[in-house]
Every structure is written in structure tokens, then in C-alpha cells.
Specification:
The protein is globular, with a radius of gyration of 24 Å. It has 20 helices and 22 strands. Strand 6, helix 3 and strand 7 form a beta-alpha-beta unit. The two termini are 27 Å apart. The structure holds iron/sulfur cluster (SF4). The site of iron/sulfur cluster has 12 residues, from helix 20.
């Protein structure tokens, strides 16, 4: 019998009870691989008793689907931060459990920490609510950190003793301690992912219903200048095809979801899908590039049951697509649309981004021409049968300047400017039958922009939003800060950002050069095929060479004041 965080005794089997909280609804949690990996890795370790918690919209609480335990039963509460919107949910969840929402108000267990992609993008708006963060990818050293905490808990150490014991360990960021923290990553000596991340749960409730998800690659070699994934997951890495096949043979799933970027670039894609098809395993693909869609591949997709194709166009004009480093071939794109129409796929989904820096009238004239070409390609594909793709669905999101991207210094459009652009595209699309248009809400995107670029002062705004039924407009009026200071105008490249204390390996000078190339509408070639750091372009070469990278060891091992105890 050991004590729990309320000081009561409870049988936890001599293990550290850990609540793994995904502050979004269950459907999203079940389609996110990082936290599922942590759940599996901690769950397989005898030192931990792990329960999963999802945010429940109805009750406003985090609920455990597997037991009637509540968060307050757990001495270690780990939040997985995957979206900026998780900041407010995290605060709401703590409030709902009567756990003080700032670390400074808590003197005893539970210890509250966070990890996940937002922990290395920019966690600063929520940092005052956390005792510490783990900055790195899930296979990094999170289990080792948890072991340090677990052993300290079992010895009866206080929270402050535990924090002292993990302070300075690689990947650990503690509120109020401002030393630079290196992101923990994990790759083999040949540059592969060590082992593919995959679903721990296959569920009807998942966004990817009943699918066993497998990570094909991580990061993206293209480096589109608006996209954080192309920078924060450097160097781009892929899974070994044989590892993926071994997994499928072991799990024997009915349906596989392939997770990754630019999947059509993967040299083994076609042979792997053919292998799945022969085994009668259904599949879905997360991301395709139009230039990889030839007749043979599309025919195969159609034959094997794919009904819908999704393509990201991003900028509204070819000029903006070039500026954002999109490597987009209009010729190949419209040829792909023609084939998609000819083969009568049910839906073609296209994604655009509105409000990119420098967007102007001439870009919307280009968009009008693009829509005409789209219609022509669709009709050409129909041929004499007069039957083609049923629906072309266009979705627009608003440009959000993300930390660690070359556009991190850029402003966002005002809400009314966004709304006018949305009206304009809607009108353009209405001219074409079978073309449906939908757009994100500009106000929500601006809040996302503020949270993306926010510092600790934004924590007050989160608290105000939480106190006012999540009403952001009301909270903004009451807040002492000003949203325009964060996203209202272009910032000098000399400006330091709060997230500069995190080291992801990408050199700031590289981001500045890329920002300049955006303005000059110049392309940068993708990362070469050879394992990083063959090109020595963005700074990852130095980051990787700081540690010796023996096979199957994490990066940046030597970056902290201390290393782990033996055996970790
Ligand atoms: S050093 Fe080159 S290969 Fe490595 S991440 Fe940077 S651009 Fe890509």
C-alpha cells in the first residue's frame, strides 16, 4: 500500500500512477499516434500504472474510458499537447478537478507536465500551468524521465525534490528555469525512424474508423514555408518497409491507415499497397501529391476501393505557391484532376490557405483562372460519358504564422479582411456546378495565431477565457494585452521569440534566408534523398553532430547539465 496524491493509501501495486490526458475528444486521441506510443511504452513498464483520459465535451472534464478513477487520483498527470486549442482545455480540465491552475499555487502532488508537438513548437502560453515539459518526440527519453519520477515517488520524495532531480535532464523544461533546451529525437544511424509509430487502439470511435494507423514517415523534405511540420520534425525520416510489413503480419488488421507527408514520394508506396491488397487488407492514405498521381496508381486506388482523393493546393495563385516553396506543377495537377474525373472518384477535396503574406487582387484573378482550368479538366476527364467526379470540395483555412517557420515574422489579416476574401471565393465557386466551398472561421484562426505566437502573458488571457465560458471575444476585451502585438504587423527578423530557448536544430539564419526567398518568390530544393545532414543547409548537421548518434540512441544526449542514471 502506498499513498496517493490525496494522502490516502491505495493499492497501486507499488507503481507510479500516471494519468495520460489527451485534451481533445476521444475520436482525435484515437487517431493520434504520439500519445498512443507513450501509453504503450509506459504501460509496458512495471514501474507505472497508466490510465488514459480524454476530454469529455458534455461534462467539461477529462474522463477515463477504462475505469472510474478521476484525475485527482494520480500523482503524475501528463498532458499531450497537439493543438494550440489544447491550452484552454488543459486549464478547464484542471479547474474541473479543483486542481490549482498555476504551478506556483501547487506545493504538493500531483505533478503536472506536458509533451507532444506543441511542447516543442511553442508551449509558453500554458507554461505557468505546468510543473515541467518534455521537449521531444515520444520515443525520446520520456520513459526514462518518468522512471526518475517514479522512483522518487516511491521513495516518498516531495514534488520540489522530484523537480530538482529532473532539472537539467535532456529535454526537460521547467517553468522559471530559462536554460536552452534541446529537443530529443530518435533515429537510426542510417537516418530511419527507429520503429514505426502505430495505433495502440483500433476503434470505431476513431476519426479513422477501425483503422490500424502506421507512421510511414516523419517530417517533410519539401519545407513549405508556412508549414511547421516541415521544420520542427527535421531531419525528415522514414520507416523501414520491412518493419511496416512485420507489423501488419503481427497485428493482422482489417484496415490500415498510412500516416505521413507526401506519401506519393515514398518509393515503396505502390508495392506496399499492392502487398496489402493481396492480403485483403484495406487501406487509406493521409497525404498525396498531385505530381505522384499517374494513371496506373489512380486505377489501382479506384480498384482497391478508394472513393475520395485529397490534394493540397495551398496558395490561391501560382505566384504564392512558388513563394511558399510549394513545388506545385499546374500541368501535373490538372492532368491528375482529369484522371480523377475520368475514373469517377466520388470526391476530390482541395485545400487552400487564405491570407498569405503579400496576397493581393492579382492572386484572386489567378484563382479565377485556376477554377476555370479545374472545370475544364473535370469535363475533359468526363469525356463522352458525361460522368466524372461527383463533387469537388474546396476548403480554405486562414494563414497562421507558426513558430519555427520562415513566415514566423509575418502578420495575419484582420478578421474583416479574411471575411471579405472568403465571400469573394465563395462567389467564384458558386459559378460552377458540383463545386462546394467551405472556410474556417477567421476569428478562430486569429486566436490560433495569437496562441501560436504567444508568450506567458497570454496565460492571463487563457484564464479569462476559462472564467468566461470560453468566450474569447469577451476575454480579449478584458485582457491587458493586445492581440495585434502578436499578429498585427510584420516583425523585425532581429526580434527574439520566447521559443528561441528551445533548440530544434534549425538555424535561425536559415529561416531568415527562407523568409527572404518567400518575398523574392524563389524556390528551395527539398532535402536530398541521402540521410541528413548530407546537404548541411539548415543547421541540422550541427545539431546531429553534437551527439555522436550511435544507432538506436537519442539525439542531444549530452545537452543537459546531467545525464540519466545508469541503465536509462
Ligand atoms: S541539413 Fe539538409 S537534409 Fe538535413 S534537414 Fe536540413 S535541409 Fe534537410
Amino acid at each position: 500500500m502506498i499513498r496517493n496524491c490525496r494522502g490516502q493509501t491505495k493499492e497501486w501495486g507499488g507503481r507510479l500512477p500516471v494519468a495520460l490526458v489527451f485534451p481533445e475528444e476521444e475520436s482525435l486521441a484515437l487517431s493520434t499516434l504520439g500519445w498512443q506510443r507513450v501509453y504503450k511504452d509506459l504501460g509496458h513498464n512495471n514501474l507505472f500504472y497508466v490510465e488514459r483520459f480524454f476530454w469529455d465535451r458534455k461534462s467539461g472534464k477529462a474522463k477515463c474510458p477504462d475505469s472510474d478513477k478521476t484525475l485527482a487520483d494520480f500523482p503524475l498527470i501528463c498532458f499531450s499537447l497537439n493543438f494550440e486549442g489544447d491550452f484552454l482545455t488543459l486549464i478547464n480540465i484542471l479547474k474541473a478537478e479543483n486542481i490549482p491552475i498555476t504551478a506556483s499555487e501547487r506545493s504538493d502532488w500531483p505533478l503536472i507536465m506536458a509533451g507532444g508537438p506543441i511542447a516543442f513548437l511553442n508551449p509558453f502560453p500554458v507554461i505557468p500551468s505546468l510543473d515541467f515539459l518534455f521537449v521531444g518526440e515520444s520515443e525520446g527519453r520520456f520513459v526514462a524521465i518518468s522512471e526518475v519520477i517514479g522512483n522518487a515517488w516511491l521513495k516518498g520524495n516531495s514534488v520540489s525534490q522530484v523537480i530538482a532531480s529532473i532539472s537539467g535532464l535532456p529535454g526537460i523544461m521547467i517553468y522559471g528555469q530559462q536554460q536552452k533546451v534541446k529537443k530529443q529525437i530518435f533515429l537510426t544511424a542510417e537516418g530511419y525512424l527507429d520503429s514505426p509509430c502505430h495505433s495502440t487502439f483500433v476503434s470505431r470511435a476513431s476519426v479513422f474508423r477501425d483503422s490500424f494507423l502506421m507512421e510511414i514517415n516523419r517530417g517533410c523534405p519539401y519545407g513549405c514555408r508556412f508549414c511547421a511540420a516541415g521544420f520542427i520534425y527535421r531531419p525528415p525520416r522514414k520507416s523501414k518497409t520491412q518493419d511496416l510489413k512485420n507489423l501488419v503480419q503481427k497485428v493482422n488488421p482489417r484496415k490500415v491507415g498510412l500516416v505521413g507527408t507526401a506519401l506519393t514520394d515514398w518509393e515503396d508506396l505502390f508495392s506496399f499497397l499492392t502487398w496489402l491488397h493481396k492480403r485483403k487488407v484495406k487501406f487509406s492514405l493521409s497525404s498525396l501529391r498531385a505530381d505522384g498521381l499517374d494513371r496506373k496508381f489512380l486505377e489501382f486506388l479506384r480498384r482497391s476501393g478508394t472513393r475520395s482523393i485529397t490534394l493540397a493546393v495551398e496558395g490561391v495563385s501560382s505566384r504564392l505557391r512558388r513563394a511558399m516553396n510549394k513545388h506545385f506543377s499546374s500541368e501535373k495537377f490538372f492532368r491528375a484532376v482529369e484522371l480523377i474525373s475520368e475514373m469517377q472518384f466520388n470526391t476530390l477535396k482541395l485545400y487552400f490557405i487564405l491570407g498569405l503574406p503579400g496576397e493581393s487582387d492579382k492572386d484572386f484573378h489567378d484563382l479565377a483562372h485556376f477554377l476555370e482550368m479545374l472545370e475544364q479538366a473535370r469535363k475533359k476527364g468526363m469525356g463522352r460519358k458525361k460522368k466524372g467526379v461527383d463533387l469537388i470540395s474546396i476548403s480554405a483555412s486562414m494563414f497562421v504564422p507558426k513558430p519555427w517557420t520562415p513566415l514566423q515574422w509575418s502578420p495575419m489579416d484582420k478578421e474583416e479582411v479574411f471575411l471579405e476574401k472568403v465571400r469573394r471565393i465563395k462567389k467564384m465557386c458558386a459559378q460552377y456546378k458540383g463545386l462546394r466551398f467551405q472556410a474556417e472561421k477567421p476569428f478562430s484562426s486569429r486566436i490560433q495565431g495569437l496562441l501560436s505566437k504567444g508568450d506567458e502573458k497570454v496565460h492571463d488571457l487563457l484564464v479569462l477565457a476559462s472564467e468566461n465560458d470560453n468566450n474569447w471575444r469577451k476575454a480579449l476585451k478584458m485582457w491587458s494585452g493586445n492581440i495585434e502585438d502578436y499578429i498585427g504587423s510584420e516583425l523585425s527578423v532581429e526580434k527574439d521569440f520566447v521559443w528561441d530557448t528551445i533548440d530544434l536544430g534549425v538555424d535561425r539564419r536559415y529561416l531568415i534566408r527562407e523568409f527572404d526567398k518567400y518575398k523574392k518568390e524563389m524556390l528551395t530544393s527539398p532535402c536530398p534523398d541521402e540521410p541528413c545532414p548530407s546537404c548541411r543547409r539548415c543547421g541540422m548537421d550541427k545539431f546531429l553532430s553534437d551527439s555522436s548518434f550511435p544507432e538506436r540512441r537519442p539525439a542531444a544526449l549530452t545537452s543537459g547539465k546531467k545525464d540519466f542514471p545508469d541503465g536509462n
